[in-house]
Write a structure and sequence with these properties.
Blueprint (H helix, E strand, L loop, with lengths): L1 E3 L6 H10 L5 E2 L12 E3 L7 H19 L2
Antiparallel strand pairs: 1-3, 2-3
Helix pairs in contact: 1-2
């Protein structure tokens, strides 16, 4: 699922923050040949249960919310 930032959040910083939280993301910048694109990332969630999915989404949200406070 592509996730595009609507605010000015540095893509590399978001990806690094998520990785420190144990979430591996792929930046969209690496997939574009031109410089005219929006920053963001590709995300895929895998979970066996609803509880696992909820934990993963909350973990990602927490990591990205930390970027807003800077």
């Amino acid at each position: 699922m592509p996730c595009v930032f609507i605010r000015d959040i540095p893509e590399r910083e978001a990806i690094d923050t998520a990785r420190r939280a144990g979430i591996d993301l792929l930046g969209l910048t690496a997939l574009h040949a031109s410089s005219k694109h929006k920053a963001g990332f590709l995300m895929g969630l895998a979970a066996y249960t609803r509880d696992e999915l909820e934990v993963a989404v909350k973990k990602l949200a927490s990591a990205l919310m930390a970027l807003r406070r800077r």
